[in-house]
Design a protein that fits this description.
Layout (H helix, E strand, L loop, with lengths): L2 H14 L11 H18 L3 E3 L10 E5 L8 H14 L5 E5 L1 H5 L5 H4 L2 E3 L2 H9 L3 E4 L3 H5 L16 H9 L3 E7 L6 E4 L2 H7 L1 H4 L7 E4 L3 E4 L13 E4 L5 H6 L2 H21 L8
Parallel strand pairs: 1-10, 2-5, 2-6, 3-4, 3-5
Antiparallel strand pairs: 6-10, 7-8, 8-9
Helix pairs in contact: 2-3
GO molecular function, one term: acyltransferase activity
Keywords: Acyltransferase, Transferase
Pfam family, one: Acyltransferase
Length: 280
């Protein structure tokens, strides 16, 4: 059997294990039960501070576009999901896109009850068509594994597909800026070279195999071994919405620049208020 055939077989085995997106797996009753304890944890451990939720439209579909930090255990997603559910109520449909392998990891099935689905265009389209609010991170594993000394840099790696998604769905975009997540571990290298060497970029759509320092293991290669995130202070600020009509008439580059500029401005403002890493 040729190497190409082996790669295609392995890729099929990986994709076959990704749970099919079922928006009905989101369970408002489960979220309602878990919310008080998890919000207490977020408030104590991450000293969660979420601002500007009133800038999000009160109903209807909306695309929430964030900068992303913290590796495969992103505290920004955890904190924002709890804040959104607390502010708007658990009955408002809210979904988050995550990498296939994160959705498939053993022990993380509860994420699907919170509305987490595998990141692809079809799932995103279904979530918006259902009338839900959808949180996406265009930077994906490129941004989330950036070195910690670039923690205050918004970098989508040139990805702009979210603009077309919003335009096709006829929904506004709301930028969600956050700081603190990239201090949950010390990220040393994205490891894109390692992903290519191991061929996981072709097998599992995994473009990065990061190298990081994190408790309890110390030096780690890849971020799929369970670890303890450092108790970094997470601050999130919702930026002004970009109207659906503006998105409809403008070029992708114009909207992309508007989104990333709003995010970088928010990140810079919140970063300037931090005195120390982790402590905040």
């Amino acid at each position: 059997m040729a190497l190409g055939d082996v790669v295609e077989w392995a890729k099929h085995q990986v994709s076959a294990r990704v749970p099919k997106a079922d928006l009905d797996q989101r369970d408002p009753d489960y979220i309602r039960e878990q919310l008080p304890g998890l919000w207490l944890l977020a408030s104590l451990y991450f000293r969660a501070d979420v601002r500007g939720l009133d800038r999000i439209p009160t109903d209807g579909p909306v695309l929430l576009v964030g900068n992303h930090s913290g590796g495969n255990l992103p505290p920004d997603t955890f904190v924002f999901t709890l804040a959104f559910s607390s502010y708007f109520g658990v009955e408002r449909p809210f979904y988050q896109l995550a990498h296939n392998l994160v959705v498939s990891m053993p022990g993380l099935g509860s994420l699907r009850k919170f509305g987490t689905v595998a990141a692809n265009h079809e799932n995103a389209r279904l979530a918006l068509e259902s009338g839900g609010a959808l949180l996406v991170y265009p930077g994906g594993d490129y941004e989330v594994f950036r070195p910690s000394w670039e923690r205050h840099k918004v970098d989508f790696g040139g990805r702009k597909g979210y603009v077309k998604l919003a335009r096709d769905a006829g929904v506004p975009i709301v930028p969600i800026a956050s700081v603190g997540g990239q201090e949950a571990a010390l990220f040393l290298d994205r490891g894109q070279w390692l992903a290519r060497l191991l061929m996981v970029d072709r097998l599992a759509r995994l473009k990065s195999v990061p190298i990081l320092l994190a408790p309890p293991w110390g030096l780690a290669v890849s971020d799929f071994v369970p670890r303890l995130p450092l108790p970094t202070k997470i601050t999130i600020e919702v930026q002004e919405a970009i109207d659906a009509d503006d998105i409809k008439t403008a070029d992708d580059d114009v909207i992309h620049e508007k989104v990333t500029a709003a995010l970088q401005s928010g990140v810079d403002r919140m970063a300037a208020q931090r005195r120390f890493p982790v402590i905040g």
